[in-house]
Design brief:
There is one protein chain. The chain is α/β, with parallel strands linked by helices. It is built from 7 helices and 15 strands. The longest helix has 18 residues, at 54-71. Bound molecules: S-adenosylmethionine. Residues 15-16, 35-37, 44, 191, 193-195, 218, 220-221, 223, 238-241, 244 line the site of S-adenosylmethionine.
Length: 267
């Protein structure tokens, strides 16, 4: 295990099963974003994301899900991803321990052919869970999106007395459309399952406040730490692979220079 501190951000290189119990205090984290290997055979720098049986994969997951829940403060939130085929198992396991407030669909378009003999996969599921449904952070004003009826068509709602313009902004629904990170995009890093900055921006803005601690136990390219730094949050990122940790250290250094503009890779 190796620990790197960068201002209020910590990067820990190691196995989360060793790092979580030994390096992170229970009830100390405001928000957890969990994007584990999906057990679908992706190649993470030579490590195959495929367990011998589905049961092996799920038992491994259940172990760290429990650890993650322990790390959360009583008013904390967790967003958790996995493949469509394993999400039902996560859902049934987690709903006994937390309240699942939203079952989100991250939808993306794809120009390539996904499948020829069945309907190709165009989305990834995300559970939004809270420890206490009566006490959790949700910054509605920071994540409003355009409400097309009101904003574009300027319609008037005559059912109201007096009649009113439709709202031009609304809270996003549970289907989120963000482009996947592709080669040649400014934010692209050499990793098979890098998550978009825009996805983490919405999650972190909605479910944490400035100064809060955000944990990502499968950091990959450290998108979570990168966005957390830009938004004035603290972060802890865990990642097994040295190559990806190097990406994380670099991204933390450039985070403040890149605020919705061009990501500078050379430092
Ligand atoms: C789905 S990717 C995360 C991608 C990340 N959200 C991003 O935006 O780049 C999962 C990551 O978990 C890492 N990983 C796999 N097993 C791990 C373990 N036992 N402990 C810590 N990290 C692990 C992999 O190396 C991989 O980078």
């Amino acid at each position: 295990m190796e620990i790197f501190n960068y201002q209020t951000h910590k990067i820990i290189q190691g196995d989360l099963l060793e790092v979580l119990p030994n390096e992170i205090a229970n009830h100390s984290v405001d928000l957890i974003f969990v994007d584990p290997p999906y057990n679908i055979g992706k190649n993470f720098n030579g490590h195959k994301d495929k367990w011998a049986t589905d049961e092996d994969y799920l038992n491994w997951c259940y172990n760290w899900i429990d650890m993650c829940i322990n790390k959360l403060k009583p008013n904390g939130s967790m967003y958790i991803m996995t493949s469509t085929q394993f999400m039902p198992f996560f859902d049934i396991f987690i709903r006994k321990k937390m309240t699942i407030l939203s079952r989100l669909v991250w939808y993306y378009d794809s120009s390539g052919v996904q499948a020829k003999n069945y309907y190709g996969s165009m989305y990834e599921p995300i559970l939004f869970c809270v420890k206490n449904p009566n006490n959790y952070t949700f910054n509605v004003q920071d994540i409003l999106v355009e409400a097309k009826t009101g904003a574009k068509r300027k319609l008037i709602d005559y059912r109201k007395n007096p009649p009113q313009l439709y709202n031009s902004e609304k809270v996003p629904g549970n289907v989120w459309e963000f482009a996947r990170v592709r080669y040649r995009m400014d934010e692209y890093e050499n990793h098979p399952t890098q998550k978009p900055i825009a996805l983490l921006e919405r999650i972190i803005k909605a479910s944490s406040n400035a100064g809060d601690v955000i944990l990502d136990p499968f950091s990959g390219t450290f998108t979570t730490s990168f966005v957390a730094k830009q938004l004035g949050r603290k972060s802890i990122g865990i990642e097994l692979q040295e190559n990806y940790v190097k990406i994380g250290l670099r991204r933390l250094q450039v985070a403040d220079e890149y605020k919705g503009e061009k990501l500078q890779k050379e430092i």
